[in-house]
Design brief:
The chain is of the alpha+beta class. 15% of the residues lie in helices and 43% in strands.
């Protein structure tokens, strides 16, 4: 999908040429570029790509669709592996930097021994950041790129403790627990964490991220499939990428069929052979 244009062009030329030779006794072989044809799209300077059945099969084109999903927002933060902590006291604290009171701030002290059942993870957040987090949900723990690659992603669950005040930075320390104690992390190791934000529970327009193709200028597109063997390039505005989906601010209508495998090859055919 996001391969270089040069490779895509070479693959398109080889594929379409092969399809043309395979069908040399048919009318399709008489087209200027083998089985590929191009038509004007009314109101657009783009071309509609029309292939024959053999070319679609040789390109291995597959499709999905634009849909609506409730995709929670997520945000990355930094964290570190720490010794287990124990609750000392709960007290009301006013953040001078934010001008608001946080009634559930607690004080903790570290345990002298490691927890045999969990790895403890500490994340430092501002009070507004903490308020934006879905505090009851598990989080995704991602090893830093500097690691040796032997540690895989995992998840952590809330430790069940209120946030603790970091008085030196006027920040909050929040604690999570990782169940896999043999994953390979050590005390003070740093990680990235992906935390789910509070969502408005509204559905968002999404498209499989495999359907998104970026041109040489970085603009994002998808190829719609309005009819059998017919493909049209459509612009999309991506808000964010969540897992296998791209959340769209704008794009084709809900239910539109889009190419998930072969978009780069269609783009190569369009920009090279359409002239």
């Amino acid at each position: 999908m996001k391969k270089g244009l040069g490779l895509a062009v070479m693959m398109v030329f080889t594929t379409l040429s092969g399809a043309a030779l395979a069908g040399s006794d048919s009318k399709a072989s008489k087209a200027p570029y083998g089985p590929a044809r191009f038509e004007e799209i009314p109101g657009s300077d783009l071309k509609r790509v029309i292939l024959d059945e053999k070319s679609v099969q040789r390109l291995g084109i597959e499709t999905g669709e634009v849909s609506q999903k409730n995709v929670p927002s997520r945000q990355l933060f930094g964290g570190s592996i720490v010794m287990p902590v124990v609750y000392q006291e709960k007290k009301q604290t006013t953040f001078g930097g934010f001008g608001g009171a946080t009634p559930s701030v607690a004080s903790f002290k570290s345990q002298p021994k490691a927890d045999p059942n969990f790895l403890w993870l500490q994340i430092t957040l501002s009070e507004p950041e903490w308020q934006r987090i879905s505090q009851e949900k598990q989080i995704r723990v991602i090893p830093l790129d500097t690691r040796d690659g032997k540690i895989s992603e995992t998840t952590a669950v809330p430790a069940g403790l209120p946030p603790a005040l970091d008085p030196k930075r006027t920040m909050l320390r929040v604690y999570y627990k990782i169940a896999d104690t043999q994953i390979g992390y050590h005390l003070h190791d740093r990680v990235r964490v992906e935390m789910v934000l509070k969502d408005d529970n509204e559905n968002h327009m999404v498209v499989p991220y495999d359907a998104v193709h970026y041109d040489s200028k970085g603009k994002s597109w998808v190829y719609s499939n309005p009819q059998q063997y017919v493909f049209e390039r459509k612009p999309v505005a991506i808000n964010r990428v969540v897992g296998e989906f791209a959340v769209l601010d704008s794009g084709p209508a809900i239910g539109t069929s889009v190419v998930t495998v072969g978009a780069a090859l269609l783009y190569g055919a369009e920009v090279v052979f359409k002239k």
